[in-house]
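Hi all, long-time lurker, first post. I run a small reading group and we've been trying to get comfortable going from sequence to structure in the token notation. Rather than ask abstract questions, I figured I'd post a concrete chain and ask someone more experienced to write out its structure so we can walk through it together at our next meeting. Sequence below, copied exactly:
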Amino acid sequence: VFDMVRHFEERRADAVLLPCFISHTFVDEIAGEARVPILNVMDALTSHVQRRHPEVRRIGVLTSDIVRRKQLFERAFERVGIAVIQPAPEVQRDAVMPAIYGAAGIKSGHLQGEAVELLERACRDLLADGAELIVPGFTEIAIVVEALRERGLPIVDSNRVYAGHAVTDAGQKQARPFKIGVVGGVGPAATADFMQKIVRNTTAARDQDHIKVVVEQNPQIPDRTANLIGDGPDPTVALYATCKKLEAGDADLIAIPCNTAHAFVERIQPYLSITIVNMLHETVQHLRSTHPALRRVGLLATSGTLASRVYHEAAEAAGLEPIAPDDAHQALVMSAIYGERGVKAGFTDGACRDELMAALVHLVERGAEAVILGCTELPLLLAQSDRFAVAGTHIVLLDPTDLLARKCIALSNQ
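-- Answer (accepted) --
Happy to help. Here is the structure in token form:
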């Protein structure tokens, strides 16, 4: 069933009809993974009974053993205050199931005689038990519904009701779970850190309360810094291709947990139908909204990010004064990131942290009131803080990946 729904998606169907009651026992699971709306037969039937038979408080149901066990009708109708009556077990066994599946049943092509007689018997049994209206849970019964009505039975044509519902509601969009798309592998440890921040910052009491995330882990994307400050290969196409895969995977937005990669976002965004959430802009806006009196902001980032000036431009546009390390201290930052004992090599303490702290002290001594950890690996060395103690004072230390995670979560709740 799921494969067929995907097939209809590829053919750009506006909605999918699923005329099979057994399939509707698991339709919610399919709908949660589908882009195209699946019209729910139970929504159609409950709406019809409420609208056309407002006096009815008890319905009788003719359906299969499996639908009966799954309580499909009970869950739908009892929610709107209508009781469901099922045939007695012996009637279900000796009349309902043979009328559909038996040798003389409707599925064998018998539309008169024994099949209709058996269904009439089941309907009479339901009416005797207090049912005011019969609602079939077999699509096959619609073929003989007129014959049953001629016998004075108050029975709904479920297929006609479902088709009418489709005509009325086919164009309506159904809600589906929000999905965050993540460009992963830039770098791998930063991606894992970002995913942890998505989970940690999501308010959830159970697994199902968390946000759907699709990650395209592509560590083969060329190094962004090597391209920006040297003659390394251009990562634009690889980044774009990764974003397109996320777009095709039904992501509602894209997060790139790599500061340097944002130097290429302006080239990519016009060719996507979904938004790349700009981590740099979110970081600067967070600083302005939470600490409006601060003006001088230090940048700890790769040389590629600094050379691209994407953080400089974002900060200056918000009325902030960006401060970058001098060459000697920038070399320490690059060593903390790319060195043999740097964070990209898997180290989170020792020489790499000492080098980063030396660069941080340097920025604070030059007047930085806040410092942005502008490489997504750096928060693995220093934690975000509103009062980070350094060089005899306290500063604001910002983790852009945490702020990006929080923004994605906020957008998922809108």
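A couple of things your group might point at:
The chain has three domains: 2-169, 179-279+407-412, 281-401.
The chain has 19 helices and 14 strands.
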